[in-house]
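Checklist before submission:
- one chain only
- standard amino acids only
- sequence pasted in full

Submission:
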Amino acid sequence: MNCEARMLLNARVKTKDGIELACDVYLPPDETKSYPVILSLSPYNSTCGRNEYALSWCKRGFAYVGADCRGRFKSDGECVPFINEMSDAYDILEWLTSQKWCNGNVGMVGGSYVGSTQLAAAASRHPALKAAAPSAISNDFYSLYYTGGALELSFMPAWHIGCM
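Returned file contents:
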């Protein structure tokens, strides 16, 4: 994809408890405008350099921010799934709305765990989050961990080992 964009790689967002989260920011080329932002808070390596998916959002007039969840890849802290996402999302949204390139409107997209981070962000009730489109998530996390009361060894421990 041929799309000009300004990239701010490994931008740091300080949370209320002092942890720094890593974000890659992709901005349309016009520095005189502010833009709505698409945010992805992910444990799957959002800070990996040039991202064609992010550039596709810039081509459509959005800024795109890919943030690594706490304790993942370039973000500081310890990864404890489902624990810090609500407060971290709130802090990222606060940071976004303080940037001159953000027009105060943020949407989120993505599936699997990234879908869950959207629900956490929505639960934070930050006024900048205007839309979320979670996909491929469960409405019953207990059933992901347990089948008939037994820990689901084929799925969850492997996922947690990869996250820790």
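Reviewer check: The mean pLDDT is 88.
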